[in-house]
From TrEMBL:
<dbReference type="Pfam" id="PF00996">
    <property type="entry name" value="GDI"/>
</dbReference>
<dbReference type="GO" id="GO:0005737">
    <property type="term" value="C:cytoplasm"/>
</dbReference>
<dbReference type="GO" id="GO:0007264">
    <property type="term" value="P:small GTPase-mediated signal transduction"/>
</dbReference>
<dbReference type="GO" id="GO:0015031">
    <property type="term" value="P:protein transport"/>
</dbReference>
<dbReference type="InterPro" id="IPR018203">
    <property type="entry name" value="GDP_dissociation_inhibitor"/>
</dbReference>
<comment type="similarity">
    <text>Belongs to the Rab GDI family.</text>
</comment>
<dbReference type="InterPro" id="IPR036188">
    <property type="entry name" value="FAD/NAD-bd_sf"/>
</dbReference>
<protein>
    <recommendedName>
        <fullName>Rab GDP dissociation inhibitor</fullName>
    </recommendedName>
</protein>
<dbReference type="InterPro" id="IPR000806">
    <property type="entry name" value="RabGDI"/>
</dbReference>
<dbReference type="GO" id="GO:0005093">
    <property type="term" value="F:Rab GDP-dissociation inhibitor activity"/>
</dbReference>
<dbReference type="GO" id="GO:0016192">
    <property type="term" value="P:vesicle-mediated transport"/>
</dbReference>
Length: 445
């Protein structure tokens, strides 16, 4: 470890591992350290033993839960959009060779006390129980508008200027009801609250297009998910980094980050060893003095079930979104469901992870309508995470800190953070060109 590097990365969360992979490919000499003995940091996937150690140290998993190694429980529940930025990065870096993805079988939304599939095609809109007869026709016209929208053909804009007109005005033009706005804004555009309504419509329209294009890719839902859990993602980028000479050290204490007289970072100390580098990247847990709370706290409840979610045609995986308005809340509640068919739970078991931004002191009561949708559960592990963000952008001390993983249901904000950090470090936008596939000899594992 007593050597000089271009970059030292602290923590093996997904953000850090994407950055070390990308920087290694660009020829930087990277040292990557984690104080924990497993990959993933805050975004790890845990087996039963580790899950109990973390949430219920005095208890033992019940025997009926099956083999420890069959479990990979995500600490941060998120799905990948099939056409989203993380998927593009995985494909362009050829990291997909280390991973196997499966599509998530359904995307559901809660309305008036029950759940239904999110309609994404004109046919589905016509059949959807979410809307009455006339509303179905209005929804069909809205989907046609989105489907035909071409930036450079003004006659497809139907008189709307999406850089000026707000989303409320767009909904008004199509005469959509408030319950329909709820599922378009929250279950398709995936906004977590209603602030988007008064903003220019462009971003919302682009998000709906991303959703629909992602659905179109595999059919059942816009989401895909890696076999063996999300913890596979940082590991896959770590392997990419290693191929390009990156050095990885797990279970390695980080005792001190060292600075020069000008206050610029110069290295990292672990025991008696010092590794030097002029750039250090890390997650907020390594820099408690350099981060602040965003004020948002995320509640997550991991429920283990031995049956599929009721009223979902026994799907092996799905997402359920409860738009905030439906429960008179300010933030949506998400439920991510995966199961043995993704190699994250033992046979006949399902994992349902509920998450939301907390609004009261009793988040488990706020989430009661979500728990009700699941039916009986065998086990539940609950936790609250504070969200942190860096105080400074790193230009002064060359320490670049990532943000905590937020409450959104997908990875788009994580890749935004990766791009932002990359830009702060290099002064250039991150462009990941399609990498030539490696031959097996180059890939030493
Ligand atoms: C623009 O859109 C209209 C309406 O969809 C279509 O009839 C027309 O052919 C399009 N024009 C071009 C140049 O693509």
């Amino acid at each position: 470890m007593d050597e000089e590097y271009d970059v030292i990365v602290l923590g093996t969360g997904l953000t850090e591992c994407i950055l070390s992979g990308v920087l290694s490919v660009e020829g930087k000499k990277v040292l990557h350290i984690d104080r924990q003995d497993h990959y993933g940091g805050e975004s790890a996937s845990l087996n039963l033993t580790k899950l109990y150690e973390k949430f219920r140290p005095s208890a033992q998993p019940e025997e009926s839960l099956g083999r420890n190694r069959d479990w990979n429980v995500d600490l941060i529940p998120k799905f990948l959009m099939a056409n989203g930025e993380l998927t593009n990065i995985l494909i362009n870096t050829d990291v997909t060779r280390y991973l196997e993805f499966k599509q998530i079988s359904g995307s559901y939304v809660y309305r008036d006390g029950r759940i239904s599939k999110v309609p994404t095609t004109e046919m589905e809109a016509i059949r959807s129980p979410l809307m009455g007869l006339f509303e179905k026709r209005r929804m069909k016209r809205f989907l046609e508008y989105i489907g035909n929208f071409k930036e450079d053909n003004i006659s497809t804009h139907q008189g709307l200027n999406i850089d000026k007109n707000t989303m409320t005005e767009v909904y008004y033009k199509f005469g959509l009801e408030s319950g329909t706005k709820d599922f378009i804004g929250h279950a398709m555009a995936l906004w977590t609250n209603d602030n988007y309504l008064t903003q220019p419509a462009r971003e919302t329209i682009e998000r709906i297009i991303l959703y629909l294009q992602s659905v179109a890719k595999y059919g059942k839902s816009p989401y895909i998910y890696p076999l063996y859990g999300l913890g596979e993602l940082p590991q896959a980028f770590a392997r990419l980094s290693a191929i390009y000479g990156g050095t990885y050290m797990l279970d390695k204490p980080v005792d001190e980050v060292i600075y020069d007289e000008e206050g610029k970072v110069s290295g990292v100390k672990s025991g008696e060893e010092i590794a030097k580098a002029k750039i250090v990247i890390g997650d907020p847990t390594y820099f408690p003095q350099k981060v602040r709370k965003t004020g948002e706290r995320v509640f997550r409840a991991m429920c283990i079930l031995d049956h599929p979610i009721p009223n979902t045609d026994n799907l092996d995986s799905l997402q359920i979104i409860i738009p905030q308005n439906q429960l008179k809340r300010k933030n949506d509640i998400y439920i991510a469901v995966v199961s043995a068919s993704h190699n994250v739970a033992s046979k006949n078991h399902y994992l349902a992870i509920i998450s939301t931004i907390i609004e009261t002191d009793t988040p488990h009561i706020e989430c009661e309508p979500a728990f009700k949708l699941l039916g009986a559960y065998k086990e539940v592990f609950m936790g609250i995470s504070e969200l942190y963000e860096p105080i400074e952008d790193g230009t002064k001390d060359h320490v670049y800190i990532s943000k905590s993983y937020d409450a959104t249901s997908h990875f788009e904000t994580t890749t935004d953070d990766v791009k932002d950090i990359y830009f702060r470090i290099t002064g250039k936008p991150l462009v990941i060109e399609k990498r030539k596939a490696l031959t097996n000899e180059e890939d030493e594992e």
